[in-house]
Design goal:
Layout lengths: L4 E3 L8 E3 L35 H16 L9 H26 L1 E2 L21 E2 L23 H16 L7 H28 L9 H17 L3 H8 L20 H8 L4 H7 L6 H13 L11 H17 L4 H24 L1
Antiparallel strand pairs: 1-2, 3-4
Length: 356
Amino acid sequence: DALPISRDAGNNGQLREERCAVLARVARSFLRFGSFELCLNETDGREGPSAGMTEEVLAPLFEYALQRHYPHLCSLPSRTQRVAAFVAEVARRTAQLVAGWQTVGFVHGVLNTDNMAITGDTIDYGPFGFVDQFDPDYSPNDSDAAGRYSYRQQPAVSAWNLRRLATALAPLGSEGGAAEAAAEAEAAFWVEYEPEVRRRWRSKLGLLLTDEGEADDALLESLLGVMQRTGADFTNTFRALSRVGWEASEAASYRAPQDFDAVLEYCLAQCASTEAMLKRARPIFHPKALARLAAIAQTEPERLAQFGLDASVVARETQRAARREALARVTPRDKRLSDAEAWRAWLHAYRLRLWR
């Protein structure tokens, strides 16, 4: 039998027994990139709690991780080779994971080294979220003013975290030193990530038979641009595109503005209202604060680091403020007409691509 839990729910001294539950997190492993940073001894004076204990702590931890999760690498003759192969395998799995995040609109929220598993699994997603109204700068973490963990930044931050993993493991053996190991880890991520995320996007668009290279990439980029400008729902938009049929001819791919287009209407139904877009585009900084930050960015950009910011963040928020101001002047009717024009043009290009 479960232990009874008594609680003073009304804060009036009256205890009442209630049922309770235990929430357990389950994963193949909770070894994180950050687990290997315990022994880091940074040149700037920062130290991990086990700094310098390479053979006492780092080596046993690495060998355990290898035997537990990558036993096929244990037969490599030297520890240097095992470390390099381990980092490369973690980079490959991480790249596949992040490609999956990007193509379903998942945003982790707190993507630091202590929240990334060496197994390529999603763990420790606290203030996570899924992109609804498409905004590449979306972050579910309200404390992330700099946008470090936004949807747009997830691949780059993951690559940076891999650099940190490689740096932490470098004392165990690295042919070119920590800096070279870090560069190789980042390169291994991008080599795997870029074709994988492209393959997944193409699959979502049904581009399975032929590959038109840069033209297909431009088609995807233009889709994401239309989704952002119209505030389209990420998931529902791709569901809408599943309704696009295969046309019998190039001429049949065209829809005149006066013709009824069920797919177009469905896409338009996924677009956010002006009010919803204004709410999503609410500024992180007060206008006066943003003006001061912009002035600092112009005259003393190095001071922005004191606030955990840089010039790119100030530029992004300045652009967001300008977009919000422009959006505030758009009537619902004008937005509907603009959205329809943008989606009609993109759907025509998409139908032509499927026909080819």
